[in-house]
Amino acid sequence: MTPVTAAEPVNLDLAALRNAIAPIDGDNGGDKIVAELLKQRRFNPGIQPPPLRPIYNLGGQVIATPGNLVTVTSAVKTGKTAVIGAMSASVMAAGTDADCLGFSSSNPKSYGLIHFDSEQSPDDHWHQVDRALKRAKLHEPPSWLYSYCLTGLGHLRGWECVQEATRIAVEQHGGIHSILIDGVADLVADVNDPAECNDFVAILHDMAIQRDCPIIGVIHFNPGGEKTRGHLGSQLERKAETNLRLDKTDEVTCIWSDKQRRAPIPKGTGPCFRWSDESRMHVSCETGSDRREAADVERMRDELEEVFSERKAMRYSELKSTVISRLTVSARTAERKIARYRKKKLVTRRAANLFVFKG
Question: Are 112 and 212 in contact (CB under 8 A)?
Answer without folding.
Answer: no
